[in-house]
Design goal:
Layout lengths: L1 H12 L1 E10 L5 E3 L2 E10 L1 H10 L3 E2 L5 H14 L3 E6 L8 E2 L34 E5 L3 E5 L5 E7 L2 E9 L1
Parallel strand pairs: 5-9
Antiparallel strand pairs: 1-10, 2-3, 3-9, 4-9, 5-6, 5-7, 7-8
């Protein structure tokens, strides 16, 4: 009986708290700022990569700042290739949006307030009337390209949160 009382006193005299610890990414993904990224090197269409990113827990990357763009373009340069990201104008009104949240992809002028963009000169140009997907081009920053064109992609996901239980008292 004494053991039961001691046990009950310990339970009711203690308080348990859950604290958020570090953010981390799934294996193979890289943490940058508040997102995780993975460069998918398989050559597939924009739509195939869009589906693949969702299957692995993310979405094609959206680019919201100069810092994020520099980080992703650095990955593009290291890999010497162009990669799909999540901008498209395949929607009903043909305006450019990020597929992650349907937010508008800023057009010119770039870099004002929250309207970050890095379109290359004279882009998007919808060459031949069929360029509706956004790529980070090895040579030209942001470029609209033919969506079925096979190339790699950059997926983005929220980091995993690690929680720890602590006892006080």
């Amino acid at each position: 009986m004494l053991r039961l009382r001691v046990f009950l006193v310990l339970i009711f005299a203690s308080e348990w708290y859950c604290t958020k610890a570090n953010s981390r990414c799934k294996a193979g993904w890289v943490l940058h700022d508040h997102s995780c990224y993975i460069f998918v090197n398989t050559s597939d269409s924009w739509i195939e990569h869009m589906q693949h990113c969702v299957l692995i827990g993310g979405h094609l990357a959206s680019i919201d700042s100069e810092e994020e763009n520099r980080f992703l373009e650095g990955g593009v340069r290291v890999r010497h290739a162009s990669f799909w990201v999540g901008g498209t104008n395949m929607n009903a009104n043909s305006s450019w949006v990020w597929i992650e949240n349907n937010n508008p992809v800023p057009m010119r002028p770039c870099g004002h307030a929250h309207n970050y963009c890095k379109w290359n000169k004279d882009q998007p140009n919808n060459s031949h009337g069929n360029e509706h997907c956004l790529e980070l081009n090895l040579h030209t920053h942001w470029n609209d390209n033919y969506c079925p064109f096979p190339q790699g992609a950059i997926c983005e996901a929220k980091p995993l949160q690690e929680y720890h239980w602590i006892t006080i008292g």
